[in-house]
Design goal:
By secondary structure, this protein is mainly alpha-helical. The protein has helices at about 10-25, 30-55, 65-85, 90-105. α2 (about 30-55) packs antiparallel against α3.
Length: about 120
């Protein structure tokens, strides 16, 4: 039995992998506005799977039941948009985490709706 090798690219590596793929197979990036529409479409597809899997709706015959596929599609388009806009997602994520930590240091701990 063949052992599956771990695939764990950093955000920077993922951005590079997408860029390499686009340049090799994709001809060119879609426009930023088209990719924004594609991102919205992919988020909608993820929402459909989540609502059927964890919500009150049921799946239709032959419909995708795995949210990971849709999550990966969302990530793909987000990586495309980051590349197109010159965004370093690693740095942007670091800043976001720092901002949220500072802003929400006690907010969630003190939220009675979240206590068990």
């Amino acid at each position: 039995m063949e052992e599956k090798q771990a695939f764990s690219p950093t955000l920077a590596e993922a951005q590079r992998l997408v860029d390499d793929w686009i340049k090799t197979y994709g001809v060119r990036y879609f426009s930023e506005l088209t990719n924004m529409a594609c991102l919205t479409e992919e988020v909608g597809e993820l929402a459909r799977v989540m609502s059927r899997k964890y919500g009150d709706q049921s799946f239709k015959a032959g419909e995708n039941t795995d949210p990971s596929e849709e999550m990966a599609d969302v990530l793909w388009v987000l990586l495309c948009l980051a590349n197109q806009t010159g965004t370093d997602l690693s740095e942007a994520f670091r800043r976001s985490l720092e901002k949220k930590t500072k802003r929400d240091a006690t907010r969630h701990l003190n939220n009675p709706k979240l206590s068990h």
